Amino acid sequence: MPYHGTDLNKIFSKHHERVIANDNTISFGRLRLQIERQTFRFSMAKCRVLVCEHLDGTISVHYGPHLLGNYSHDGQLLTPTLHKERAA
User: Fold this and answer.
1) Is the pLDDT of residue 84 over 60?
2) How far apart are CA 61 and CA 79, in angstroms?
Protein backbone atom coordinates (compact mmCIF):
# COMPACT_ATOMS: atom_id res chain seq x y z
CA MET A 1 0.00 0.00 0.00
CA PRO A 2 1.50 3.39 -0.94
CA TYR A 3 2.32 5.87 1.82
CA HIS A 4 0.79 9.35 1.48
CA GLY A 5 2.21 11.30 4.41
CA THR A 6 5.31 13.19 5.37
CA ASP A 7 8.71 12.78 3.73
CA LEU A 8 10.09 9.35 4.68
CA ASN A 9 13.61 10.48 3.80
CA LYS A 10 13.30 13.09 6.58
CA ILE A 11 11.84 10.60 9.04
CA PHE A 12 14.60 8.00 8.53
CA SER A 13 17.50 10.35 9.28
CA LYS A 14 19.49 11.56 12.29
CA HIS A 15 18.08 14.87 13.51
CA HIS A 16 20.22 17.68 14.92
CA GLU A 17 19.15 21.15 15.98
CA ARG A 18 21.28 24.19 15.11
CA VAL A 19 20.97 27.99 15.21
CA ILE A 20 21.88 29.94 12.08
CA ALA A 21 24.72 32.43 12.59
CA ASN A 22 24.54 36.11 11.59
CA ASP A 23 26.29 35.31 8.29
CA ASN A 24 23.54 32.78 7.35
CA THR A 25 25.72 29.73 7.99
CA ILE A 26 25.47 26.78 10.34
CA SER A 27 28.26 24.64 11.66
CA PHE A 28 27.78 20.91 11.42
CA GLY A 29 30.74 18.86 12.57
CA ARG A 30 33.72 20.16 10.61
CA LEU A 31 31.46 21.64 7.92
CA ARG A 32 30.19 25.19 7.55
CA LEU A 33 26.95 25.14 5.52
CA GLN A 34 25.90 28.35 3.75
CA ILE A 35 22.13 28.93 3.76
CA GLU A 36 20.90 30.55 0.54
CA ARG A 37 18.68 33.63 0.45
CA GLN A 38 15.05 32.63 1.02
CA THR A 39 11.94 34.23 -0.47
CA PHE A 40 9.84 34.01 2.70
CA ARG A 41 12.29 35.76 5.06
CA PHE A 42 14.91 38.51 4.65
CA SER A 43 17.54 36.81 6.81
CA MET A 44 17.65 33.42 8.49
CA ALA A 45 20.08 34.65 11.19
CA LYS A 46 19.34 33.33 14.70
CA CYS A 47 16.62 30.92 13.50
CA ARG A 48 16.53 27.41 14.95
CA VAL A 49 16.72 24.82 12.19
CA LEU A 50 16.58 21.05 11.92
CA VAL A 51 19.61 19.44 10.26
CA CYS A 52 18.92 15.93 8.90
CA GLU A 53 21.77 13.50 8.30
CA HIS A 54 20.43 11.02 5.73
CA LEU A 55 21.36 7.36 5.24
CA ASP A 56 23.12 8.13 1.93
CA GLY A 57 25.41 10.68 3.63
CA THR A 58 23.65 13.80 2.38
CA ILE A 59 22.50 16.59 4.69
CA SER A 60 19.32 18.66 4.52
CA VAL A 61 18.40 21.77 6.50
CA HIS A 62 14.76 22.52 7.38
CA TYR A 63 13.02 25.50 8.96
CA GLY A 64 9.52 24.35 9.87
CA PRO A 65 7.92 23.17 6.61
CA HIS A 66 10.61 24.90 4.49
CA LEU A 67 13.59 23.09 3.00
CA LEU A 68 16.53 25.51 3.15
CA GLY A 69 19.02 23.33 1.29
CA ASN A 70 20.39 19.90 0.42
CA TYR A 71 24.13 19.32 0.82
CA SER A 72 26.56 16.56 -0.07
CA HIS A 73 28.56 14.80 2.65
CA ASP A 74 31.36 17.36 2.16
CA GLY A 75 29.07 20.43 2.44
CA GLN A 76 28.52 21.28 -1.24
CA LEU A 77 25.07 22.61 -2.11
CA LEU A 78 23.19 20.04 -4.20
CA THR A 79 19.95 21.77 -5.16
CA PRO A 80 19.30 25.51 -5.03
CA THR A 81 16.02 26.21 -3.21
CA LEU A 82 15.40 29.76 -4.44
CA HIS A 83 13.09 29.81 -7.44
CA LYS A 84 14.05 32.56 -9.88
CA GLU A 85 11.21 34.41 -11.54
CA ARG A 86 10.96 33.95 -15.28
CA ALA A 87 11.02 36.97 -17.56
CA ALA A 88 7.66 37.56 -19.21
Assistant:
1) no
2) 12
